[in-house]
Amino acid sequence: MAYGLHEHTVRAMILAAGHGTRLHPLTDTMPKPLLPIAGRPLIVWNLLLLRKHGITEVCINLHYLGHLIEEELGDGSQLGLRIWYSREPIILGTGGGIKQAEPFFGGEPFLVINGDTLLDLDLTGMIAFHREHGGLATMALRDDPEAERWGVIETDQQGRVVSITGKGGPRAHQDPTGIHRWMFAGIHVIDPLLLRDVPVSRETSIIDAYVSWLERDGDIYGYVMSGYWFDVGTPERYTQAQRDADIGRINLSARLVDS
Hints:
The protein is α/β, with parallel strands linked by helices. It has one domain (11-254): Spore Coat Polysaccharide Biosynthesis Protein SpsA, Chain A, CATH 3.90.550. The chain contains seven helices and 14 strands.
């Protein structure tokens, strides 16, 4: 079933409301998305990645030290973007946060990126894949030996997601020989229909919505990525991300044209 994605440019959301607890003391006075990588805040690299792929309208959700993010980025014009903010007096999680921002998407499918991840991904290719397959959502997936640590996503031979961390619908019980195991990279293209049953103004995980649709045999697809990906979740991983940028494991300079 095609859930719809028109040819015009999609909008995007960056999830940036978290407390960054695992990064204390670095995040005692600075929100995690503003931690510098190669001289620029982490969130700016994600914004520049969006712009590189023609996505110029972005919503950012805010909670912990959110005013500092807003002060740093403003309306986005200095980056060639238009930025809106979804302020959360009570943190709403990935599900509740996306649900609160739903009016921003205008009833059209949209892209979501975790604000604590440094990555290089062909967003244009991922959006094209979503258009071609017409599912409720497309999740960026990685082949990672530590997939169990992050939460295993299973797909069938057609690339459809059949289970998330062991939860799923009837497809999860099919012949296991055709099942592939991945980790979710935290980037997805979502049709607003996926949000239909997500409660308003309540903290929830977007994964709950995914599992609910899988149980009803909804079509969710996996898009396999091969580029750089790194979760900047602890002081040690933050140090490693800085090192990776310094030695060129991720080419951030390619995003700086006209910035």
